[in-house]
Amino acid sequence: VQLQASGGGLVQAGDSLTLSCAASGRSFSRQTIAWFRQASGKEREFVAARRWNGYTYYADSVKGRFTISLDNAKNTGSLLMNNLRPEDTAVYYCAADPSIILSSIRVSHSYGSWGQGTLVTVSS
Fold first, then answer.
1. Is there a contact between 87 and 19 (Cβ–Cβ < 8 Å)?
2. Of 7, 12, 77, 78, which has the highest C-beta tally within 10 A?
Protein backbone atom coordinates (compact mmCIF):
# COMPACT_ATOMS: atom_id res chain seq x y z
CA VAL A 1 0.00 0.00 0.00
CA GLN A 2 1.21 3.49 -0.83
CA LEU A 3 0.70 6.15 1.81
CA GLN A 4 0.51 9.91 1.47
CA ALA A 5 0.64 11.99 4.64
CA SER A 6 -0.51 15.58 4.80
CA GLY A 7 -1.79 18.25 7.14
CA GLY A 8 1.30 19.45 8.94
CA GLY A 9 1.97 23.08 9.63
CA LEU A 10 2.94 25.77 12.09
CA VAL A 11 0.59 26.26 15.02
CA GLN A 12 0.68 27.78 18.46
CA ALA A 13 0.66 25.90 21.72
CA GLY A 14 -2.87 24.89 22.62
CA ASP A 15 -4.03 24.74 19.01
CA SER A 16 -5.37 21.70 17.19
CA LEU A 17 -4.28 20.10 13.95
CA THR A 18 -5.43 17.08 11.97
CA LEU A 19 -3.03 14.96 9.96
CA SER A 20 -4.26 12.73 7.17
CA CYS A 21 -2.84 9.57 5.65
CA ALA A 22 -4.33 8.59 2.31
CA ALA A 23 -3.81 5.03 1.13
CA SER A 24 -3.74 3.72 -2.40
CA GLY A 25 -3.16 0.28 -3.80
CA ARG A 26 -4.77 -1.60 -0.93
CA SER A 27 -7.60 -1.06 1.51
CA PHE A 28 -6.85 0.12 5.03
CA SER A 29 -9.72 -1.91 6.40
CA ARG A 30 -7.68 -4.98 7.33
CA GLN A 31 -4.48 -3.22 8.30
CA THR A 32 -3.02 -1.67 11.39
CA ILE A 33 -2.32 1.99 10.79
CA ALA A 34 -0.02 4.05 12.96
CA TRP A 35 1.62 7.39 13.40
CA PHE A 36 5.19 7.88 14.46
CA ARG A 37 7.13 11.09 14.88
CA GLN A 38 10.73 12.14 14.83
CA ALA A 39 11.96 15.34 16.41
CA SER A 40 15.20 16.89 15.29
CA GLY A 41 18.13 14.97 16.72
CA LYS A 42 15.96 12.27 18.23
CA GLU A 43 14.89 8.78 17.32
CA ARG A 44 11.56 8.03 15.72
CA GLU A 45 8.93 7.35 18.35
CA PHE A 46 5.51 5.78 18.43
CA VAL A 47 2.52 8.12 18.67
CA ALA A 48 -0.66 6.16 18.02
CA ALA A 49 -2.00 3.08 16.27
CA ARG A 50 -5.33 1.62 15.27
CA ARG A 51 -5.71 -2.08 14.64
CA TRP A 52 -8.04 -3.44 11.98
CA ASN A 53 -10.54 -4.37 14.71
CA GLY A 54 -10.84 -0.75 15.84
CA TYR A 55 -8.75 -0.94 18.98
CA THR A 56 -6.51 2.08 19.47
CA TYR A 57 -3.24 2.59 21.28
CA TYR A 58 -1.43 5.76 22.27
CA ALA A 59 1.90 6.88 23.63
CA ASP A 60 1.55 8.17 27.17
CA SER A 61 2.73 11.59 26.05
CA VAL A 62 -0.26 12.07 23.74
CA LYS A 63 -2.97 10.07 25.47
CA GLY A 64 -6.05 12.20 26.00
CA ARG A 65 -4.92 14.79 23.46
CA PHE A 66 -4.54 12.84 20.21
CA THR A 67 -7.12 10.65 18.47
CA ILE A 68 -6.41 8.21 15.67
CA SER A 69 -9.22 7.26 13.35
CA LEU A 70 -9.95 5.66 10.01
CA ASP A 71 -12.44 6.56 7.30
CA ASN A 72 -12.91 3.31 5.42
CA ALA A 73 -14.98 4.93 2.70
CA LYS A 74 -12.16 7.33 1.88
CA ASN A 75 -9.40 4.84 2.70
CA THR A 76 -7.82 7.58 4.78
CA GLY A 77 -6.48 7.57 8.29
CA SER A 78 -6.36 10.65 10.49
CA LEU A 79 -4.62 11.88 13.59
CA LEU A 80 -6.49 14.63 15.43
CA MET A 81 -4.09 16.49 17.67
CA ASN A 82 -5.56 18.74 20.35
CA ASN A 83 -3.87 20.96 22.90
CA LEU A 84 -0.58 20.84 21.05
CA ARG A 85 2.61 21.52 22.95
CA PRO A 86 6.03 22.68 21.76
CA GLU A 87 7.38 19.21 22.55
CA ASP A 88 5.01 17.80 19.91
CA THR A 89 7.13 19.48 17.24
CA ALA A 90 8.38 16.78 14.90
CA VAL A 91 8.07 15.23 11.49
CA TYR A 92 5.07 12.92 11.63
CA TYR A 93 4.93 9.71 9.60
CA CYS A 94 2.03 7.39 8.93
CA ALA A 95 2.61 3.68 8.59
CA ALA A 96 0.57 0.59 7.88
CA ASP A 97 0.92 -3.14 7.85
CA PRO A 98 -1.50 -6.08 7.55
CA SER A 99 0.44 -8.38 9.88
CA ILE A 100 1.25 -6.47 13.05
CA ILE A 101 1.02 -8.46 16.25
CA LEU A 102 -0.01 -6.59 19.35
CA SER A 103 3.38 -6.80 21.03
CA SER A 104 4.99 -5.06 18.04
CA ILE A 105 2.45 -2.31 17.50
CA ARG A 106 4.75 0.38 18.94
CA VAL A 107 7.81 -0.80 17.01
CA SER A 108 8.52 1.18 13.87
CA HIS A 109 10.36 -1.54 11.96
CA SER A 110 7.31 -3.78 12.24
CA TYR A 111 5.53 -1.69 9.63
CA GLY A 112 6.04 -2.39 5.96
CA SER A 113 4.49 0.71 4.40
CA TRP A 114 5.38 4.30 5.19
CA GLY A 115 4.26 7.67 3.99
CA GLN A 116 6.55 10.62 3.59
CA GLY A 117 6.76 12.81 6.66
CA THR A 118 4.75 15.92 7.36
CA LEU A 119 6.23 18.58 9.61
CA VAL A 120 4.35 19.83 12.64
CA THR A 121 5.81 22.85 14.40
CA VAL A 122 4.28 24.09 17.64
CA SER A 123 5.39 27.48 18.84
CA SER A 124 5.20 28.50 22.48
1. no
2. 77
